[in-house]
Amino acid sequence: MRVAYRAFIFLMSIVVATTASAQRYQPTEENLQSRKEFQDAKFGVFIHWGLYAMLASGEWTMNNNNIDYKDYAQLAGGFYPSKFNADEWVSQIKASGAKYICITSRHHDGFSMWNTNASDFNIVKATPFKRDVLKELADACQRQGMRLHFYYSHLDWSRTDYPVGNTGKGTGRPADEVNWDSYYAFMNSQLKELLTGYGRVGAIWFDGHWDQNKDFDWQLAEQYKMIHDLQPQCLIGNNHHITPIEGEDIQIFERDMPGENKAGFSGESSVSELPLETCETMNGMWGYVIADKNYKSSSTLIQYLVRTAGMNANLLLNIGPQPDGRLPQMAVERLKKIGEWMNVYGETIYGTRGGPVVPHDWGVTTQKENRIFVHIMNLQDNSLFVPLKGVKVKKAFVFKNKKAVEFKNSRDGILLQLPEKTDDVDYVIELAVKK
Hints:
alpha/beta; TIM Barrel; Immunoglobulin-like; 2 domains; eight-stranded parallel sheet; 10 helices; 28% helix
């Protein structure tokens, strides 16, 4: 009996320890508020910009072309983005209706886009430009009321102390100089700079976890704690393509809607209860590619934003600035078109959550309290059955002009008799429902 009792106590101690371990990270009230504000924002713009823009062949060009890290570093001597204007960037992005910007502070090539003291390989110390673009962008965002997030790469193809992983094997780094402790300290030093010298940071957006094998210890718990200690409201996301782990505040999907795996990056992740974000390119690549003119149409991008909102997620839409510091004109034009649409329909996106109807081929629903927005993007008929089981609709009307829509409630949903379309991109019907 005594042996059994001891065994029981031992097992219970394991359960308690495991539960305590699982509950170590308790987000602050500030953090929870940031999560809500993030979900309400619904739309952000991603900026992939660095030395790789000079080669105009994408942010992975160093890896794809096996460029020696010493040769790659020589690019810095000619990097002079004379047309960069932070206020212009923010104004152009703000015109799209986006509520936040996420910019690459340091991508996989290892070049830092701010005046970091942790490395001379940065835009102020290594280039003739001598300007801290992150500081200028942070100041411009503060002036114009735009939130700023920082992308930060966990891997580095240029630093010799980073343990060579699944990528960047052809960049010529000597194996005998690998020193994880040195590299980890370097990363944390840089993150501290970003979190103490660039104002209020909306989020740190990590990438590169997939570069090492699954058993590799990135020491994320300590790193995440440091971030939350410095700025409790700062959200942490990691594009690791797995289900979120302790300490993370948002879940990221690369080129995929939550629950889908069309791009092949989400096979090991399930959809969590955290705020969700889908990142997607405006054309084919993330960084600037001079030959890539295959931009998605404004209508396609608007519909992608709407479908993302219907999946209860944010859209982070990417732009790769030119080496001279300007946003590509084709991107600016699309930002403007999205903004024109958002000026009319933003109320059906901002502050909403995914609606009660799962996405269909015809479209999606979003919801805000007792208002359901039916976003019809692909329908050939004059009527639409919306499967709203158990929901009582009091009123239905076209969102744009408030024209009444005939409807019939049934046990399994509502049948809408649609008047002539007012918008071919997204025909929005608003339903007023009983609470």
